[in-house]
Every structure is written in structure tokens, then in C-alpha cells.
Design a protein that fits this description.
Rossmann fold, alpha/beta, 4-stranded antiparallel sheet, 6-stranded mixed sheet, globular
Length: 236
């Protein structure tokens, strides 16, 4: 595991959904520049962990820090500042269907305070190049394949140069070829210095793109520094 600065820290975190305990006393860190998979059975709490990181859900107990922000001390108007530190990618893309690729990314920039038109245009061009979507700025979402829509969603997530990219089943709706394309992009983003925390149920991806694995088991966590150790345990 990397010994660089921790950018996500969970200490003794528990979470409940309705009257059911989903997670109990979990501890983990994600360090700057790491690529970490989050795995577990459906309903085990993967999305709960991700939602707590971007303050869409609050823990019932424990301490969470993202960057230099202690989430337990956040006021409501602090949440946009927290989310500017991270990029978030979902399984279902969440693009605005009535806006072009350019307009979808432009909307995200304006929502986070960008006002200089020249800088906006330059930044949109940069992130489209980064995800391999140069020349697609005027396309509508329905004109793109699922993989291309996810590439646009990743570009949108990168717009504020986040310290961490949170990806919730980003390949879940994609065919194998498109999944590999998305994974190649995520790997390159990670190699550029951005940490990636990716929830997935597709264990074949772990074999092709091995990295550290955090597994949710019985409301707690098991940390596998290498994917191979998790895969051998899972398939034995």
C-alpha cells in the first residue's frame, strides 16, 4: 500500500439504512495516487460508503475525512466545496439528455463557479482529449454509445482536477470492449496522480487490471493489498 498522504480516512464508521445496520466500525484509508477497488455482495454497503464520502449520506457513528475536510463538521453550504475536491461517476452516466456533450460539461463547470468563457472552453477541450472524445462536443447523448456516454461522464468528473475519482459500478452497463476502454481511461487518470476508488461487482476486471481491493464482509472490511489475494480467496 502507498505510504503517501491519506486523502480519504474512515475511523470506526458505522451506517444504518432504516432500522438495519449496514456497516459497523469500519476503518480504512485511501492514499494519494492509489487505485482501490471496493467489492462486496449486492446490498453489502458499497454505495453507502461512496455516498458517505461525498456527503449524500451520513454515518451513524465514526469519523470521515476527505482531503482536509472533516465531514462531521460540515455545514450544508460546505458540501459543494467538498464535492469540488472529487469527481463522481455513476453506472447510469447521468448526462442531461437535451444537451450536447459540450453543454453537459459546461453545465458542470458553471455549477462549480467557473465564469471565464475562454478558460471554460479550454478546460472542456482538455478533458475531452483526456477521455478520447475529441470532436464529439456537439453530439447529443443519444447519438453516443454507452461507452462513449460514460467517457463523457468521466470527462465531466475530471473538470475540477479532483484529488480523487469516485466511480460507482462505472462499467456495469457496458459491453466488454467498452468496459476495457473505460478502465484504460481510469488507469491513465490514476497514473497522472488522481486517486481512484471504484465500486464493482465485475471481478474479471480485477484480474485484468489488478490493484488493491477493499472487500465488505459481514458489515466490516477486509483489505487485500493485491487483487490476486482477493481473487484466490474468492475462487478457492
Amino acid at each position: 500500500m502507498s505510504q503517501t498522504k491519506s486523502i480519504i480516512t474512515f475511523k470506526s464508521v458505522s451506517a444504518q439504512f432504516l432500522d438495519r445496520t449496514v456497516l459497523e466500525g469500519i476503518d480504512f484509508e485511501v492514499h494519494m495516487g492509489e487505485f482501490v477497488y471496493l467489492v462486496g455482495r449486492t446490498g453489502s454497503g458499497k454505495s453507502t460508503i461512496l455516498r458517505m464520502i461525498y456527503a449524500d449520506q451520513h454515518p451513524s457513528n465514526g469519523f470521515i475525512r476527505v482531503g482536509d475536510m472533516h465531514l462531521g463538521q460540515l455545514m450544508g453550504n460546505d458540501i459543494p466545496f467538498l464535492r469540488r475536491k472529487m469527481g463522481i461517476v455513476f453506472q447510469d452516466f447521468q448526462l442531461l439528455p437535451d444537451r450536447t456533450v459540450y453543454q453537459n460539461i459546461h453545465f458542470a463547470l458553471r455549477a462549480t463557479g467557473w465564469r471565464d468563457s475562454r478558460k471554460i472552453k479550454q478546460r472542456i477541450s482538455e478533458v475531452l482529449i483526456q477521455v478520447g472524445m475529441t470532436g464529439k462536443g456537439e453530439a447529443m447523448p443519444h447519438q453516443l454509445s454507452g461507452g462513449e456516454q460514460q467517457q463523457v461522464a468521466i470527462a465531466r468528473a475530471l473538470i475540477n482536477d479532483p484529488i480523487v475519482l469516485i466511480a460507482d459500478e462505472p462499467t456495469g452497463n457496458l459491453d466488454p470492449e467498452a468496459s476495457d476502454k473505460v478502465m484504460d481511461i481510469l488507469q491513465k487518470i490514476n497514473l497522472s496522480g488522481t486517486a481512484v476508488l471504484m465500486a464493482t461487482h465485475e471481478y474479471s476486471i480485477l484480474k485484468r487490471y489488478p490493484s488493491r481491493v477493499i472487500q465488505i464482509v459481514d458489515q466490516g472490511l477486509v483489505d487485500h493489498p493485491k487483487a490476486q489475494g482477493f481473487l484466490e480467496e474468492y475462487w478457492k
